[in-house]
Specification:
Oligomer: heterodimer
Number of domains of chain A: 2
Structural class of chain A: alpha/beta
Number of helices of chain B: 3
Radius of gyration of chain A: 20 Å
Radius of gyration of chain B: 16 Å
Largest sheet of chain A: 7 strands, mixed
Distance between the termini of chain B: 52 Å
CATH architecture of the largest domain in chain A: 3-Layer(aba) Sandwich
Order of helices and strands of chain B: EEHEHEHE
Number of helices of chain A: 10
Largest sheet of chain B: 5 strands, mixed
CATH class of the largest domain in chain A: Alpha Beta
Shape of chain A: elongated
Strand order of the largest sheet of chain A: 3-2-4-5-1-6-7
Strand content of chain B: 25-35%
Strand content of chain A: 15-25%
Number of strands of chain B: 5
CATH topology of the largest domain in chain A: Rossmann fold
Structural class of chain B: alpha/beta
Distance between the termini of chain A: 45 Å
CATH superfamily of the largest domain in chain A: P-loop containing nucleotide triphosphate hydrolases
Chain lengths: 310, 117
């Protein structure tokens, strides 16, 4: 802990119904608008409409994003939604964002990436004059999700206690580590081993499989870019050799790359890159274009699994 | 543990390489092949060439380039940034992956022009 309080504010808002949702979100946006502070709302579409209706005329000048689209890949939310908005605002004014990345219907496959994202927001915004309010639907979300929200948010707001109070269980590093789990269900797909010489061949293999599995146009380009970045990372940072697998699962084309390296930086691929920065954008691009990215990394190696919808 | 080695399930082609040659009658280069880890140095050297002159326009004929990775797009973005305000690079028939990378990672980058043919 530092002696100076972090200006970054990151409360979870636990709501039970529409009324509590509006009571927790609309005044938050109104206050920002009245204070002339930039404010964005990134929540699932149905909740977006609730807030817009609740705001009425005050909705003008507020940036609205459907989190089901902009944040379907949790790894995209920090660079593509939160920092994309916050970094574009003039300095000297607090930036306020409502971000609802976890809704009932997030799959078991998505959830670990969602909760790791919530935990990493704290590191990504440390020291910033930013408030990110994260609503949680306590009636429809699992008990474990709510327990995790207390660990990923330093403070909590409920209808009984509208002023933020300490969540009492704040420990984001433990969440990042705890959800760093081996990726289940290794499909019965032959892997392709690659090294520096066979990098292009690995990419041809992925695009041929992607085409066979139904990807076309931009999505096929995306698979080719993703494969190039992941396999090149293995060659340059991950021990020089890796193994690539491509398969279809639940309507997605999945591209997985394993290598013997360890991914030490949990924010890799989640920092927006300023124009003048050379290099270091590979994982950022993967996060921006994928529908889901899952990572497992330990002393034995790193597995990155990327899901692409056609 | 870590990596389980399997037999490659696809034939791995020979390194596709990247060739670069000057355009006739115009300041610029024609490139053919792929820009990836193995060919990045050739690509970067070609872009350094664009920075050397003082013409307003430098042309890159890319219709025979089949792939450019993010680092290759980054080298181009970097070259464009260093060109100065009144100069630009014109890309002829760039691969669609390059347009995708530029649009996602360098939105609003001035100094690149892609004529629609």
């Amino acid at each position: 802990m530092t002696a100076v309080a972090d200006p970054f504010v990151h409360p979870a808002l636990f709501y039970r119904d529409e009324q509590e949702y509006l009571a927790g979100t609309v005044p938050f946006v109104r206050e920002a608008v009245e204070a002339g502070e930039p404010v964005a709302v990134a929540v699932p579409g149905e909740n977006l409409r609730l807030i817009q209706d609740g705001l009425g005329d005050a909705a003008a000048g507020v940036r609205f994003l459907d989190m089901r689209q902009a944040g379907r890949n949790p790894g995209r939310i920090i660079p593509g939604v939160l920092r994309a908005f916050a970094d574009a605002q003039p300095s000297g004014r607090r930036v306020r964002i409502i971000g609802e990345p976890i809704w009932a219907g997030r799959t078991a496959n998505e959830y670990p990436a969602c909760v790791q994202h919530e935990a990493l927001i704290n590191a990504a915004f440390q020291g910033r004059e930013v408030t990110i309010l994260c609503p949680y639907d306590v009636k429809r979300l699992d008990e474990q999700v709510l327990t995790d929200a207390l660990a990923t948010h330093p403070t909590l707001i409920t209808s009984g206690s509208p002023l933020p109070r300490a969540s009492g269980a704040y420990d984001p590093e433990a969440v990042v580590a705890g959800y760093n789990r081996p990726l289940s269900h290794v499909p019965d797909v032959q892997g392709l081993v690659f090294d520096d010489v066979t990098l292009p061949g690995a990419r041809y293999h992925a695009t041929a499989e992607g085409m066979r599995l139904g990807l076309t146009g931009t999505r096929l380009d995306d698979l080719s870019l993703i494969t190039a970045e992941l396999t090149t990372n293995s060659v340059v940072h991950g021990g020089g050799v890796g193994e690539l697998r491509v398969w279809a699962e639940d309507g997605y084309v999945v591209c997985e790359v394993r290598d013997s390296g360890r991914l030490e930086d949990p924010l890799a691929g989640r920092r927006p890159a300023p124009h003048e920065q050379r290099g270091g954008r590979g994982l950022l691009l993967v996060n921006l274009i994928a529908d889901l990215v899952r990572v497992h990394t330990d002393h034995e190696g790193t597995t990155i699994r990327v899901f692409l919808a056609p | 543990m870590g990596i389980r080695y399997g037999t490659p399930s696809a034939a791995v082609d020979a390194e596709p390489g990247l060739t670069v040659s000057p355009l006739s009658g115009r300041r610029g280069l024609r490139a053919a092949g792929e820009v990836g880890l193995a060919t990045r140095v050739i690509w970067e050297r070609a872009l350094e060439e664009a920075l050397r002159g003082d013409e307003d326009v430098y042309e890159l004929e890319l219709s025979a380039v089949t792939f450019i990775d993010v680092a290759g797009a980054g080298a181009l973005a970097d070259a464009v940034r260093r060109l100065g305000p009144d100069r630009r690079i014109v890309l002829h028939a760039p691969p669609s992956v390059l347009r995708r990378s530029l649009e996602l990672l360098w939105p609003g980058l001035d100094g690149i022009e892609v004529p629609t043919s």
